[in-house]
Structure formats: structure tokens, C-alpha cells
Amino acid sequence: MKLFNKKYHKPGTKPGTVKVGENTVFHIDLYDYNANDLKIEHNADVATCKAFIQSDNCTWIHVQGDPSAEAIKLLGKDLGIHELYVEDIINVGQRPKVEVNDEQIFLILNLPFKENGRAQVDQVSLFLTKNTLITFATGKVNPFEGVIERLENKIGKLRKQHTDYLMYALVDTIIDFGFPMLETYSEQIQKLEDELMETKNERILGSIHELRRELLLIRRRLWPQREVINELLRSDGNPLLNEVTLMHYRDCHDHVISIMEMLETYHEMTSGLMELYLTSVSLKLNDVMKFLTIFTTIFIPPTFLVGVYGMNFNSDASVANMPELNWEYGYIAVWCVIAVMVSGMLYFFRRKRWI
Hints:
Layout: E1 26-33, E2 38-41, H1 46-53, E3 58-65, H2 69-79, H3 83-90, E4 97-100, E5 105-115, E6 118-128, E7 132-137, H4 145-153, H5 163-176, H6 178-198, H7 202-222, H8 225-233, H9 243-309, H10 330-351
Parallel strand pairs: 3-7
Antiparallel strand pairs: 1-2, 1-3, 4-5, 5-6, 6-7
Helix pairs in contact: 1-2, 2-3, 5-9, 6-7, 6-9, 7-9, 8-9, 9-10
């Protein structure tokens, strides 16, 4: 996951400038429905979408992938999407935000997921008018398969509600994508804790650092979504949002808070793992230094003793010149003295609980 992944134009460019991307692989799916009927158009073109926009049914137009600038401009022109909104849709990596007025609501949210073991974030843009909802999602896989299944099979009350309820269902899906990711992070943290208790190699330190970095970046991308839901909840009286839908958005708000709290907790836990690793390495180093210090201390007195008797002064020249050199059991006596010194120091260290 990149530290900087926001697309932007050259500073000074006219607002609303849309740059054609190199990869423009996308498809448009259209769902037009009411309580009794559902019509689906896969790989629809802009002209088909325009025809359904005028119907009294609820119309959902979903654009998946990296759309071309021409398609975005046509949709924007037909639906009255402001040029600045079009620019935000094309230039992915935007901060989650919401623009609310009596005629339209524009949302940008971030959808987190794991791909090949790495954290990824797709941008999802939602544009709501009276009877029409248009969504734009980056990535190759449609994240709203569950909502589509509910529409097709008449599960729940989705088909009986207006487009604002459909937008709630999509927002709830985007937010709930955070829970599987949090479960993955929980398993990673638990695994790292178990490995840290068993071994203390540098690979674990790298894994902890990578996990901590991912959590920090995911937190940065998801944190503003609380403000988005709060802004929707403050839109009481807006003709595009009825009271029943606003009650469901309160549940979304609870989910957002829960996800952010768990992200904060996991980030603190990874910081604790980092400190635990460094502490364990420091304790291991202290144990090594302690052993070496005790080992050196034990052998200092015997080294001093044998060093003194290694001078070999002539005892015949003076009685003060090491008369012990002529003792019959002098060698054994020296070893006895060394054994007593070592035993005494070991006993002393044991009494002090140093060993």
C-alpha cells in the first residue's frame, strides 16, 4: 500500500479537468426496479442509461473499473454531475467526503480489502438524485454482489424502498468490508504474538513493522468516513433522505465507530508488540552480558594469583622472594586456594540472586 496514492493534475490546471487514463477497462451495469419488476442491463452504454433515467422506477447505474473520461463526461452531463465531482471520480485516492443539497447527494468512500496478503483500498463514489443512484467503484471485482443478490431475489425490503435506501445498503456494504480485514489483522497479531514468545528473529520485527504501517495507512483512509456518516445524519429534512433511511444510517455510524476503535486497538497492540520485541532482545542481551560478567569476575582472582606466582623470583636470594616456590605441596595449595575463591564467589552470587 503506497504512502501517497492520490492522482492529481499539474498545479494551476483548470478545475474540473479530466485526464484520460492509460487503462480504461470498465463496464456499466444498470438495474431498474420497483416492488414488482426488475430489469437488468449488463455492459450497458451511456445512451441506454440515459433512457432509464427518465423512468419513475428506481434506477441504479453501477460503473465498475477505470472508466474513460468520455463516458464520465456523458454521464455527468446527462445527470447534472458537477465537473468537480467528475474530477474527483477520475482522480482516485480522494479523502472520504459528502456533498448534500436538496437535489443531489455526492459521496466518496474508501473500501478496504486484502489482496494477496496486502492491504488495498478502492475508491467508491455515489451520486444520488430523486430516482437515480450512480456508483463508481475502482478495481476489478464488484463489491456489491450481495446487494445485487438481494435485489434479484427480493430479499429484505430493498425492492420496496426508494433509492435512498439502496444508497444506504451500498454504504453499509462498504463500511462492513472493514470487519473481514480487521479479523485478518487480529489473526496476524495473534500469530506474531505466538512467534514472539517462541523466537526473536529479525523477520518478526519486519512483520510487525509492516503490519503497523498497514494499520496506520488504513486508519488514515477510513477515519474521515465517520464525518461522512455524521453529515448524512445531520441532513434531517432533506427530501432525498427519509426518516426510515436515516435510522439505518445510525447503524452505519455505529459500525464506523466500531471499526475505528478496533483499528486504534490493533495499532496500539502492534506498537506493544514492537516494544515487547525490543524489550525481549534487550533482556537477552542483558542475560548474555550478565553471564560474561560473572564468568569474568570468577576468573579474575585466580588469574591474579597465578600471575603473581608466575614471576618466579629466586627464593635463595632472600626469604622474602616467594618461599612458597620450594614447598612440597605448593602446587596443590594454589589449586585449593583457587577452588575456595571460586566457590566463595559462586555462593555470594547465589545469595544475591545474581545467578
